[in-house]
Design brief:
The structure holds two protein chains of two kinds.
Chain A (H helix, E strand, L loop, with lengths): L4 H8 L2 E8 L12 E6 L9 H8 L11 E4 L2 E2 L6 H9 L6 E6 L14 H20 L2 H5 L2 H12 L3 H11 L14 E5 L23 H8 L13 E4 L11 H7 L7 E7 L4
Parallel strand pairs in A: 1-5, 6-8
Antiparallel strand pairs in A: 1-2, 3-4, 3-5, 7-8
Helix pairs in contact in A: 6-7
Chain B lengths: L7 H18 L3 E5 L11 E9 L18 E10 L4 E10 L7 H7 L2 H8 L6 E5 L6 E5 L4 H14 L6 H9 L10 H4 L14
Antiparallel strand pairs in B: 1-2, 2-3, 3-4, 4-6, 5-6
Classes of the chains: A alpha/beta, B alpha+beta.
C-alpha cells in the first residue's frame, strides 16, 4: 500500500498549539500561569498531558486535587477521541492557540470516561484497532499478531515513533488486489449538532457493480444533509485532520492514508463559519 | 461457515420476540428507537431494561462500605454492534443517592467464579466505554468473544432442530455475570413462534 508515504508522515506529525489554563474555581496557593504545549493530533489528551498536570500541581494542595479533566468553552472534552477530532469538532474555526481549561474537581461522571492511568488509554486504543480489523479483515490480521506486535503499535503511539508504529500498522492496511479494498471501511462521522455521539455503520469501499466508493458516496448514504446542494452556499464543512478532502476522493485511499492510528477514519461535519 | 453471525435484521427480530415474552413476564424491557439527529436514517435502536437489584438479598452482595449492604439500581441496554455482528450489553449502576459505581465497584459485585475468568481475558472484558447511541459512559462486556461462545449454542440448537433466540441465549450467558438474571420462564413457558434464519449455516 501507501505510495503516498509523505501523507502518512504529515498526518502523524500534525500538531495543535494549545494553551492550558487552570479553571478559576480551583483552590490554589498562588496564581497559576497558563501552560503551552504542541499537542499531537493523533494522540489522546490524557496521554500527553503529564506535564500540564505537573505544572498545575505545583500551585495546588494535594487535598484539592482529584482526577484531571479538560473543558473547552463549556464542553467537557472526551479524552477517548483523538485530539485532532476534538479540535476539528469543537474549535476548528477559532483563533490559535486552542484554549483548554483544566479542572481538578467535579469530574463530570455522566459525560466523560474515567482515565486513572495510561493503561486505560492503551485498552481503549487496542479495542479500537481490534474493532477496525473486525471490519476490515474479519479480525484475521489482528488475531494473527502476537502480543509484542500489539505492544509495538501501542508503544509507537505512546512514544511518538512513526517508523515503529507503521512497521506494524502496514499489516493492518493490507488487502488483496482482487478485493480492491477492505471488507468494510472503519469510519465514524461526528456532528456537533447531533444528540448521537457519532454515526458508524457498514460501508464497503467498492460497490457491488465494481465502482469505487468516494467520500461523497459515503456521506450521501450516512448524512446527506452534510452535502452541498447545487447553487446553494455550503452549509457544512467535511473535515478530516483539519482539511477538507475532495468529496471525489476514493474512500479506500482515505482509509489507508487519513485514518488515525486507531485505524478508524474520523470525519467531522461542522457548520461553515459565517464570517 | 459462520452460522453464529447475527445480522441487524435478525437482531431486531430476536429483540421483538424477547419483548413479547418480557411483556408477559413484566420484567421491564422496552424498545427505544434512538433519534439519530441530523437526518440520518432512524435505524439505530437499543432495547433497555431497568431492574432494581436488591443486592443485599444475594450471596456475594455488593458491599460498597464495609459491613453495610446497599440497594443499587442497574440499567441495562442491549445494543447491536455492526462491527462484530453481535449484541452488546451496556449497563450502569447507581446507588439510591444517584452516585454511579466505579469500575472497581462493579468488578467487586461480579461473582468471584466469573471474576477470575473474565479478568484473565486479554481485553479485561468489563470496561467503561462510551455508549454508542447516548454518548454517555457505560460499562460494557466486550463483544470480541461473543461469536466464539455462541457458536456451540447455535450449532446444538440447529442439530436438534430447535428454534433458538440468539439474543435471549446470549443474554442468559452474559447477563448473570453482571447481576442481570434472565428468568428460566423465558425458555420454559413461552416458545418463540418463529424459527430464526440466523441459525442456518451459510
Amino acid at each position: 500500500m501507501a505510495d503516498d508515504k509523505d501523507v502518512l508522515r504529515d498526518v502523524w506529525f500534525g500538531r495543535i498549539p494549545t494553551c492550558f489554563t487552570l479553571n478559576q474555581d480551583e483552590v490554589t496557593e498562588r496564581e497559576a500561569e497558563p501552560y503551552y504545549l504542541l499537542l499531537p493530533r493523533v494522540s489522546y489528551l490524557t496521554l500527553v498531558t503529564d506535564k500540564v498536570k505537573k505544572h498545575f500541581l505545583k500551585v495546588m494542595k494535594a487535598e484539592d486535587v482529584e482526577e484531571m479533566w479538560f473543558e473547552y468553552e463549556g464542553t467537557p472534552l472526551k479524552w477517548h477521541y483523538p485530539i485532532g477530532v476534538l479540535f476539528d469538532l469543537h474549535a476548528s474555526n477559532t483563533v490559535l492557540p486552542w484554549s483548554i481549561t483544566v479542572h481538578f474537581k467535579n469530574f463530570p461522571d455522566r459525560d466523560l470516561l474515567h482515565c486513572p492511568s495510561s493503561s486505560i488509554v492503551e485498552a481503549h486504543f487496542m479495542s479500537s484497532i481490534k474493532e477496525a480489523d473486525a471490519l476490515k479483515h474479519k479480525s484475521q490480521v489482528v488475531n494473527d499478531m502476537q502480543k509484542k506486535d500489539h505492544k509495538q503499535l501501542w508503544m509507537g503511539l505512546q512514544n511518538d515513533k512513526f517508523d515503529q508504529f507503521w512497521a506494524m500498522n502496514r499489516k493492518l492496511m493490507e488487502y488483496s488486489t482482487e478485493d480492491g479494498g477492505f471488507r468494510y471501511i472503519p469510519f465514524r462521522i461526528y456532528q456537533t449538532m447531533s444528540d448521537r455521539p457519532f454515526i458508524q455503520k457498514l460501508f464497503r469501499p467498492v460497490s457491488p457493480d465494481g465502482n469505487v466508493h468516494t467520500l461523497g458516496d459515503l456521506l450521501k448514504e450516512m448524512d446527506p444533509t452534510a452535502l452541498p446542494n447545487d447553487g446553494e452556499p455550503k452549509r457544512y464543512q467535511v473535515v478530516i485532520h483539519g482539511i477538507e478532502p475532495l468529496l471525489e476522493t476514493p474512500l479506500q485511499w482515505l482509509s489507508e492514508h487519513l485514518s488515525h492510528p486507531d485505524n478508524f477514519l474520523h470525519i467531522c461535519i461542522i457548520p461553515t463559519p459565517t464570517d | 461457515m459462520s452460522s453464529s453471525v447475527l445480522d441487524e435484521q435478525n437482531f431486531h427480530h430476536c429483540c421483538q420476540l424477547l419483548l413479547q415474552q418480557s411483556e408477559q413476564l413484566k420484567d421491564g424491557w422496552s424498545w427505544e428507537a434512538v433519534q439519530s439527529g441530523l437526518a440520518a436514517p432512524v435505524d439505530a435502536d437499543s432495547i433497555e431494561g431497568d431492574i432494581d437489584d436488591k443486592e443485599g438479598e444475594d450471596e456475594g452482595a455488593c458491599t460498597v462500605s464495609e459491613g453495610s449492604s446497599q440497594v443499587l439500581q442497574y440499567e441495562y441496554h442491549i445494543v447491536y454492534s455492526c462491527s462484530y455482528c453481535t449484541p452488546v450489553l451496556y449497563f450502569r449502576a447507581f446507588t439510591l443517592e444517584g452516585k454511579s459505581l466505579s469500575l472497581e465497584e462493579v468488578w467487586s459485585s461480579v461473582h468471584p467464579n466469573f471474576r477470575l475468568r473474565l479478568q484473565n481475558s486479554p481485553l479485561n472484558t468489563i470496561t467503561l466505554q462510551e455508549h454508542p447511541l447516548l454518548g454517555q459512559p457505560f460499562f460494557m462486556i466486550h463483544p470480541c468473544r461473543t461469536e466464539q461462545f455462541m457458536r456451540p449454542v447455535l450449532q446444538a440448537a440447529q442439530d436438534q432442530h430447535r428454534p433458538v433466540n440468539y439474543v435471549l441465549s446470549w443474554l442468559s450467558v452474559v447477563g448473570p455475570m453482571v447481576g442481570l438474571d434472565v428468568p428460566l420462564k423465558y425458555s420454559t413457558q413461552l416458545h418463540p413462534t418463529a424459527s430464526l434464519s440466523s441459525t442456518k449455516p451459510d
